[in-house]
Design goal:
single chain; 337 residues; alpha/beta; TIM Barrel; eight-stranded parallel beta barrel; 9 strands; 46% helix
């Protein structure tokens, strides 16, 4: 049986468009990939980025819950240091009430933004700088109602309350740290190969996770999902062109001039210096791009090399038709291989 494929959405706002249109595109996308047979639709958390509409994944997922019926919905992930653990527990239990039995709670310890914005987020929320492990323990206590002896908030109920409302936990990792945390908790591990495309490091993190895994009610066995940037098109040349905006977006991020997600034409017309071209090309190299057969082969190699149980794919394009087509071509090739 083929490994399941899932979708990671950053909700790009194409140049010439706006956030309301991007959100409607996201809702159409989740319906599209549900019909194609994708297992999950996860939304990333990013802040202070004009080109992305994914600052509050919970809002997007709540809307997605009302236009879907089968696909699992999750955060990819909640950047826990930006949030009060009780608020996260309440929000995702409420989402579980909207979409019973199909919610995932992915958690990360990075801010999902620059340091200044992270400080503003945490300051406004009144959050203290606490270790990720402490925040995680508090989240689980609030979510399950099982408090260690002497916990200062024992007895507080993360509402709404009810059986099976607190979703399964996944730990996001781009290094070895998250694999230890996920193994200790008996949580799923989602490795961000799309951020850190070091296959050797990814394999080592997965091996560490599997070796030290402690079974839990949600995960009686270890479960590894690996994220990849993917663009699929009818020809290699078309796919290569579709990666050009991705490179320009990351160059702009490096320069601090991030705007809306650029088009292929904008990327081709940009006056790159040699150094800028190198930055953009390095970003493009992190994208698995090509024809359906080429992409499917590279994805299978990645899954084998890392020993993954599932792949979650982020396909970023300016044109939403090309984006939906990318996911369609990938799934068709994946099922036929």
């Amino acid at each position: 049986m083929s490994l399941p494929l899932s979708v990671l959405d950053l909700l790009p706002i194409p140049s010439g468009s706006d956030a309301p249109s991007a959100l409607q595109d996201a809702l159409r996308l989740v319906q599209h990939v549900e019909k194609l047979g994708y297992s999950r639709y996860w939304v990333a958390e990013h802040h202070n980025m004009l080109g992305l509409a994914s600052s509050v994944p919970l809002a997007v997922l709540s809307a997605a819950s009302q236009v879907t019926s089968k696909i699992r919905l999750g955060s990819g992930g909640v950047m826990l240091p930006n949030h009060a653990p009780l608020s996260v527990a309440e929000g995702y239990k409420l989402l579980s009430a909207l979409a019973p039995g199909r919610v995932d709670l992915g958690l990360g310890r990075a801010p999902g933004t620059d340091g200044r914005t992270a400080h503003a987020l945490r300051g406004q929320a009144g959050l203290m700088e606490e270790p990720f492990e402490r925040q995680l323990a508090d989240l689980i206590a609030f979510g399950t109602g099982k408090y260690p002896a002497g916990h200062p908030f024992a007895g507080i109920i993360a509402a709404p309350d009810g059986p099976n409302l607190f979703p399964p936990l996944w730990i996001l990792s781009s290094s070895g740290y998250g694999s230890h945390v996920a193994a200790h908790l008996g949580a799923g591990l989602s490795f961000a190969w799309h951020i850190n495309p070091d296959t050797v490091q990814a394999r080592m993190a997965v091996e560490t996770y599997r070796r030290n895994f402690r079974p839990s009610p949600d995960f009686p066995e270890p479960k590894v999902m690996v994220a990849a940037n993917v663009i699929c098109a009818g020809t290699p040349e078309e796919a290569d062109d579709l990666t050009l905006p991705f490179g320009l977006m990351f160059l702009r991020l490096r320069l601090g001039t991030v705007g809306q997600y650029p088009s292929v034409e904008e990327a081709k017309a940009y006056p790159y210096t040699p150094q800028e071209k190198a930055v953009a090309d390095a970003a493009r190299a992190r994208v698995i791009a090509g024809t359906p057969e080429q992409v499917a082969e590279r994805l299978r190699s990645l899954a084998d090399d890392v020993n993954a149980d599932e792949l979650i794919l982020s396909s970023m394009t300016h044109d939403q038709t090309a984006r939906k087509r990318s996911y369609e071509l990938i799934m068709n090739a994946w099922q036929q291989a």
